[in-house]
Amino acid sequence: MSKYTEAMDFYSVLMHEAKRRLLAMDTALEGKTGLPEVAVREYCFLQLRMLCELIALGCLTAQGDLQTGKLKDEYRADKIIRRLQQLHPDFYPYAATRTKAGIELRKDCFTKEELSKLYWKCGDVLHRGTVETLWSRKSGDAGIEEIRTWKQKIEALLSHHTILMADGVTAATFRLWEDTDD
Hints:
alpha+beta
């Protein structure tokens, strides 16, 4: 039994939640909620923000043996990502693609930098601002197509991905969706 077994079990729970949030976004984006577009937009940005947090917390959970200190009390995705980068540069999930030779890891799907950017974008969209900035904010510029693009990037990362552990030896691979070819 690996020292990472419990961490991977917890990580799996977080990825199951991510899957449910992605499916909920599909329902909203397909217009099946009866909500006006502005509410769908806000709902989807809330889900994207939660997905950023789930990915960051998942990375922290998966690397459970690292000396993370105050990170155990941290919820802000960008801060978790920055600190994990210092502790273990390969902590972030790699999108995985099956090839004839095995599994190929890709770094081109929803990067750490994109996660931080989206995390702050979601905050801008979801918060009205101050009385001074209320009418000058441009958070209303984000549309449904931008939401779809971010969702697709997250799905590209999480659909089939691998996490490399800090020990430099252990790796775990996860899939969000059932693969009928396996």
